[in-house]
């Protein structure tokens, strides 16, 4: 029986090659042109789970992309860990900004990754991080080191809102019953500063359409005499923030829970270098809501951002035209207690209300989800903390993240269990951006740390249960 470290050392090249093979399949859930590849990816994940020692492996069809379910139940009296991850990826565009093909993984050394990083769409979000769990499972089954029951649920629609997963979870509560949910789909502060994500933001995503005249018009003949939808939309969007960068939608902040001075103080103790942050993004100043620090702005405060805006003529040269329509896609990141459906409704009413005469406004909600916060005194959190102490030699810092994994709050509601977010990515991994990558060191460190979580969780869970 070898230690995780020794086993990884022996099998490292294969672990990297297998991930590269998985990254070659373009499982872009948002684009139906990639449907075949996305289905193939589900099959590849299922095959690997079988090889890693799972007894049951199923590809569960849904109206969308399938959910890969696998388990190994060794003893009904032992606790069960449910691992969640996703095999779908974001679209890779803009393609011309990639230094190598998004689905032609290459290993390159960078300043932060002297051991090399794998560059490919999905390398970190989430194929690489999901696959750490498959390899940790292989380690445990090959070395007689699996201390409890395991279930895997790997979906293919996370990047498009997990609608079918919600449907599946609601209908399979017994099958998915567990004592803790384990996810690696977030990040950590730095390679030498391990952290555990204790919060995620919620999300409301909407699309707006502003219609002016019934057709595109000559901007000389009509300019100045009818409302220009693009001008109007720009003005409406600009009005959604005031001079302090507070969001102006009435009721938007009503349910926001303000952190105590003590909690804010604790947050501020996490290492953060503002100059390095600005330098990494090539910006000469940060920006945001008055009265809050950068880390507060991107984790504990709600936001509203335009994700895309279009209309009129954007081709080569100039065309003198007043467009009939203008559009924008807008995301609102929410904090725990803000209900995403309420916020979507507040946005819709407000946006319709501020539309001036001469245009019609249509607001179409896309997907959304609730935020999440988890306590740091649960058995799961403490087991994760000990696992990091074991492999990093340091106590991890609890950290709330600004990103969203909407399904986590649904897990708590439907399956009544806490989620532990053991992320091994770095902010600089460029997830959702061109040149996404995942450090090989991070990948292997994840595989090494996960088995310790299982063993600490199993023994601590038992202690907890044994209490009189
Ligand atoms: N893995 C990310 C979320 C994430 C990344 C959380 C880093 C914390 C740190 C996930 O795949 C994602 O991209 N989620 C989307 C929401 C989803 C509904 C499309 C997001 O946050 O934009
Ligand atoms: Mn993800
Ligand atoms: Mn993502």
Overview of the structural elements:
There is one protein chain. The chain has 468 residues and is an alpha+beta fold. The protein folds into 2 domains: 4-200 and 371-466, Aminopeptidase (3-Layer(aba) Sandwich); 207-256 and 302-369, Alpha-Beta Plaits (2-Layer Sandwich). The protein is built from 12 helices and 18 strands. The protein has helices spanning 4-23, 35-51, 127-142, 163-171, 229-238, 261-268, 274-281, 294-297, 340-353, 379-392, 407-415, 440-466; strands spanning 56-60, 67-72, 80-86, 106-108, 117-119, 149-155, 180-183, 195-200, 202-211, 217-218, 303-311, 321-322, 325-334, 360-369, 372-373, 397-400, 419-421, 437-439. Strand 1 (56-60) and strand 2 (67-72) form a beta hairpin. Helix 1 (4-23) packs across helix 3 (127-142) and helix 1 (4-23) crosses helix 12. Bound molecules: ligand BES and manganese (II) ion (MN) (2 copies). The site of ligand BES has 16 residues, from loops.
Structural topology:
Blueprint lengths: L3 H20 L11 H17 L4 E5 L6 E6 L7 E7 L19 E3 L8 E3 L7 H16 L6 E7 L7 H9 L8 E4 L11 E6 L1 E10 L5 E2 L10 H10 L22 H8 L5 H8 L12 H4 L5 E9 L9 E2 L2 E10 L5 H14 L6 E10 L2 E2 L5 H14 L4 E4 L6 H9 L3 E3 L15 E3 H27 L2
Parallel strand pairs: 3-6, 3-7, 7-17, 8-16
Antiparallel strand pairs: 1-2, 2-6, 4-5, 5-18, 8-15, 9-13, 9-14, 10-12, 11-13
Helix pairs in contact: 1-3, 1-12, 3-12, 4-11, 10-12
One manganese (II) ion binds next to loops.
């Amino acid at each position: 029986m070898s230690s995780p470290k020794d086993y990884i050392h022996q099998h490292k090249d294969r672990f990297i090659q297998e991930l590269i093979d998985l990254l070659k399949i373009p499982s872009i859930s948002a684009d139906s042109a990639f449907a075949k590849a996305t289905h193939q990816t589900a099959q590849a994940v299922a095959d690997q789970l079988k090889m890693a020692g799972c007894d049951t492996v199923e590809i569960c069809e849904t109206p969308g992309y399938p959910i890969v379910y696998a388990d190994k139940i060794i003893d009904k009296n032992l606790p069960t860990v449910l691992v969640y991850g996703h095999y779908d990826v974001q679209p890779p565009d803009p393609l011309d900004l990639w230094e190598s093909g998004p689905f032609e993984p290459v290993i390159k050394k960078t300043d932060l990754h002297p051991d090399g990083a794998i560059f490919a769409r999905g390398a970190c979000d989430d194929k690489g991080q999901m696959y750490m769990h498959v390899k940790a499972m292989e380690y445990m089954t090959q070395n007689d080191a699996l201390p409890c029951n395991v279930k895997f649920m790997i979906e293919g629609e996370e990047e498009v809102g997990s609608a079918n997963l919600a449907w599946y979870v609601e209908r399979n509560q017994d099958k998915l019953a567990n004592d803790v949910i384990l996810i690696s789909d977030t990040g950590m502060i730095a390679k030498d500063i391990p952290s555990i994500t204790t919060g995620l933001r919620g999300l409301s995503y909407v699309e707006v359409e502003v219609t002016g005249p019934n057709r595109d018009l000559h901007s000389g003949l009509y300019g100045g005499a009818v409302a220009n939808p693009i001008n109007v939309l720009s003005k409406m969007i600009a009005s959604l923030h005031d001079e302090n960068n507070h969001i102006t939608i009435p009721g938007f902040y009503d349910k926001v829970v303000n952190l105590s001075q003590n909690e804010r103080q604790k947050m501020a103790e996490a290492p953060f270098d503002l100059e390095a942050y600005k330098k990494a993004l090539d910006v000469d100043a940060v920006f945001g809501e008055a009265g809050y620090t950068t880390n507060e702005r991107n984790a504990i405060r709600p936001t509203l951002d335009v994700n895309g805006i279009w209309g009129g003529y954007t081709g080569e040269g100039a065309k003198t035209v007043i467009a009939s329509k203008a559009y924008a896609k807008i995301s609102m990141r929410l904090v725990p207690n803000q209900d995403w459906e309420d916020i979507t409704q507040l946005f819709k009413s407000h946006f319709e209300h501020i539309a001036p005469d001469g245009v019609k406004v249509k607001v179409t909600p896309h997907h959304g989800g609730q935020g999440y916060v988890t306590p740091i005194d649960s058995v799961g959190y403490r087991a994760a903390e000990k696992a990091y102490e074991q492999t990093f030699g340091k106590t991890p810092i609890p950290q709330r993240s600004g990103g969203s994994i909407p399904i986590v709050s649904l897990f708590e509601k439907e399956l009544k269990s806490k989620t532990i977010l053991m992320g091994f990515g770095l902010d600089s991994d460029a997830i959702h951006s061109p040149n996404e990558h995942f450090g090989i060191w991070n990948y292997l460190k994840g595989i090494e740390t996960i088995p310790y979580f299982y063993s600490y969780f199993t023994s601590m869970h038992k202690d907890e249960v044994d209490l009189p």
